[in-house]
Amino acid sequence: NVVNPDMLIESYGADTLRMYEMFLGPLEQSKPWNTNGIEGVFKFLRKFWRLFHNEAMTFHVNDSVPTKAELKALHKIIKKVQDDVERFSFNTSVSSFMIAVNELTDLKCKNRQVLEDLVVVLSPYAPHVCEELWSLLGNEEGTLSYTPYPTFNPEHLVEDEFSYPISVNGKTRLNLNISLTLEAKEIEELVLANDDVQKYLDGKTPKKMIVVKGRIVNIVL
Q: What global pTM score does this model have?
């Protein structure tokens, strides 16, 4: 059984075919050729493209300061791809690209710095779409392949916040992002000062507060 790659390229583009071949599994292992999953890679590349465009599909990025969450998503994929290339584990990189794009989409990231580095990281996997975006980002055409790979900064992966489940009488009511540097007493004060928490207290004074640092806060009425 032979599948003409020209037909797939005509329907999905060369980048989709290229990434799908990488996605099938480790290079050193034999695997059955099956095009049923190629649609998923095609949808991923469209979602990646939309990161750089607004709802009207007009190219739109900004020069704002990247958020901690955006930098975390970016540097996770920088590290993952860097390690996978050394092992020729391209299939796991493709999976990680999908996760990174989903995270940045949820964050509504339009930051030029973050997205430009993401283009560089993805370019060996999807060179055509990345070259197009590189040009749209204001760079000289043909310079992407000469651009240094982004430098991984482990500081961006350090967890300095935790989403504490806030329970009232043992029932979880909400989650609050609180710095892991705070001690139990400081966490108590921060939780009690929160307007949403006060709604669940209904004007009552807590009899006791149980704070397990990095895990949970339980308010007993």
A: 0.73
- The C-alpha atoms of residue 130 and residue 144 are separated, in whole angstroms, by 8
Q: Tokens 């599994």, residue?
A: 25
**43: which 2 tokens?**
């949808």
Structure tokens at 143: 């310079």
pLDDT in tens, 107-165: 999 999 999 999 999 999 999 999 999 999 999 998 999 999 999 999 898 878 888 99
Pair 116, 76: CB distance under 8 Å: no
HEC profile of the chain = CCCCHHHHHHHHCHHHHHHHHHHCCCCCCCCCCCHHHHHHHHHHHHHHHHCCECCCCCECCECCCCCHHHHHHHHHHHHHHHHHHHHCCHHHHHHHHHHHHHHHHHCCCCEHHHHHHHHHHHCCCCHHHHHHHHHHCCCCCCCHHHCCCCCCCHHHHCCCEEEEEEEECCEEEEEEEEECCCCHHHHHHHHHCCHHHHHHHCCCCCCEEEEECCCEEEEEC
**Residue in 111, 118, 30, 33 with CA at minimum distance from that of residue 74:** 118
pLDDT at 31: 65
- Computed over every residue of the chain, the mean pLDDT equals 90
Give the tokens for residue 123.
């370019």
